[in-house]
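Posting for a labmate who doesn't have an account.
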Amino acid sequence: MIQMQRKMQVRYIIEWMQEHASKENLEGMARFGINTSDAFGISMDELRKYGKYDIKPSHELALGLWKTGKHEARILASIVDEENQVDEDQMEQWVMDFNSWDLCDQVCLNLFYKTGFAYIKAEEWASEREEEFVKRAGFVLMAVLAVHDKRGSNKRFLRFLEIIKEQSSDDRNIVKKAINWALRQIGKRNKLLNSYAMETAMEMSKMESKTAKWIGSDALKELESKEVQHRLED
């Protein structure tokens, strides 16, 4: 009975998405390099409101939504899932389904960073895996954790800086941008990490790799800016 109810709820949600589909939004998504092959063209604001006010958190529902393969349904799955129900197997299954940078980022931001495996997967995916979206997910997790995990130790983020430097020659666009994002967010976390992040960025800017040079130089501009330095002094 419960399984039948979940299937009906998934079907109802997909029908809602079909009703709110937008060709104009799809075209806009495509311009930003988002894979729209299985998308409806629903804005993130509308999707978040729907997930927050109209759907109760449910792990089983999230799994059902993910199985549809629909772009917005999978983002919604990350919004309504219950992080304490997520295990490593699910994270590994979902990360292998990532086919667009925004899906990767939303799942990491809405769900993965809240799990007890966030730091493990960030390090593992960024340093050991070569799949494009898996590696991006590792660095996105680093960036998100740097912003949202207020209790995370400096030691964890210093290890992330080592990985950032080690992987900084990866010239795939969505990977290098995620590396840059992680470096900047770690460097804005506190004064100590800012100092280490700037040191890392300077070392990268002097490397032979053009990608590493760009990541390091670009991040350094923000990390040493008056705005960032002033905020860290407060």
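Reply:
Got it, the structure tokens are right above this. The chain is about 70% helix and 0% strand.
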